[in-house]
Amino acid sequence: MKNKRVLVTGGAGFIGSHLVDLLVAAGNSVVVLDDLSSGRSENLNPGALFVRGSVSDRAAVESVMKDADYVFHLAARPSITESLSNPALSVESNILGIVNLLWAAKGAGVEKFVFSSSSSVYGPPARLPVSESLPFNPQTPYAVTKVAGELYCRASGMRATCLRYFNIYGPRQRPQAAYSAVVPCFLDAVRTGERPTIFSTGKQTCDFVYVKDVARANILAAQSRRADGLAINVGTGKETSINGLWEVVAGISRTPLTPIRKPGERKGMTRSRADTALARRILGFRAKTGLKDGLAECLGRI
Ligand SMILES: NC(=O)c1ccc[n+]([C@@H]2O[C@H](COP(=O)([O-])OP(=O)(O)OC[C@H]3O[C@@H](n4cnc5c(N)ncnc54)[C@H](O)[C@@H]3O)[C@@H](O)[C@H]2O)c1
Question: Which CATH superfamily is 170-207+238-273+288-299 part of?
Answer without folding.
Answer: UDP-galactose 4-epimerase, domain 1 (3.90.25.10)
